[in-house]
Design brief:
Blueprint (H helix, E strand, L loop, with lengths): L2 E4 L4 H12 L5 E4 L5 H6 L9 E3 L5 E3 L1 H11 L10 H30 L3 H9 L4 H23 L2 H21 L13 H9 L1 H4 L14 H9 L4 H13 L1
Parallel strand pairs: 1-2
Antiparallel strand pairs: 1-3, 3-4
Helix pairs in contact: 1-3, 1-8, 4-6, 4-7, 4-8, 5-6, 8-11
Organism: Zhongshania borealis
Pfam family, one: GST_C
Protein name: GST N-terminal domain-containing protein
Length: 244
């Protein structure tokens, strides 16, 4: 059975996991300890990031978009990539842009306040892990939280910029879905899956495999509440309801 190396809460990992589930491909989602994952992943892949798909034949695919490429090539049922070149290019453009404008920015925004709540961060990273991995995380947590801030948050100025870029991206997506239910073409595609996965941290749909619970930080709560009735948030919840 293929293995998918993940962080349980990660929206990029959710993108790959959703694609596998959508295609009905059995797999073992393996949560790995952040920090220690650097050694684990670099043994088998070029970079240290997750998700990483390890196939039964030993081939390794790294990155959510590359995983979808490989799944569509090897498992033609329930294609996520459109049939026409024009629509494939449209999907690729949305995926590439919104992985950053939505996915990277929302990660920066939420980490900027939620890092002050170590119990919640511990839940995000260690959900479903065995006890020895949870113990390893507790040992690493202080240095890990500092590293997360330095890598993903960086500064208040970067967070303010992330808020601005996120709002613009939400407005762009709102215009795309104004007259139709899908971002590209007339059926569900990887563009819809990708954008919905990137925003799963915002809307926390019940179909998502991670048990979110209450967000402990008032600032993060206010951010999510601000977009709760946004047309794109409502669209995300409907896409999850129908396809996840």
């Amino acid at each position: 059975m293929p293995k998918l190396l993940i962080f349980p809460h990660s929206h990029f990992c959710e993108k790959a996991r959703w694609a596998l589930d959508y295609k009905g491909i059995g797999h073992d989602a393996v949560a790995i300890v952040p920090g220690l994952h650097l050694m684990t992943v670099r043994k088998i892949a070029a970079e240290s990031s997750v998700p990483v798909l390890v196939n039964d034949d030993g081939t390794v695919i790294q990155g959510s978009s590359a995983i979808i490429d490989q799944l569509d090539a090897n498992y033609p049922d329930r294609q996520l990539s459109p049939a026409t070149e024009e629509e494939r290019q449209a999907c690729a453009a949305i995926e590439k842009t919104m992985d950053v404008q939505l996915g990277v920015n929302i990660r920066r925004i939420l980490y900027s306040s939620l890092l002050d709540y170590p119990a919640f961060i511990r839940k995000c990273f260690t959900h479903s892990m065995p006890s020895h991995k949870k113990l390893a995380y507790r040992f690493l947590a202080p240095k890990l939280h500092k590293a997360i801030y330095q890598i993903y948050v960086i500064s208040p100025e970067k967070v303010a910029k992330a808020h601005h870029e996120f709002e613009i991206a939400m407005d762009i997506m709102a215009k795309r879905i104004e007259q139709k239910p899908y971002l590209v073409g007339d059926k569900f595609s990887r563009a819809d899956l990708s954008v919905a996965a990137m925003l799963s941290l915002l809307t926390q749909p019940p179909e998502h495999p991670f048990p979110w619970g209450d967000i402990p930080d008032p600032e993060a709560q206010a951010f999510c509440e601000r977009y709760r009735e946004h047309s794109v948030s409502l669209w995300v919840n409907e896409i999850y309801r129908q396809y996840r």
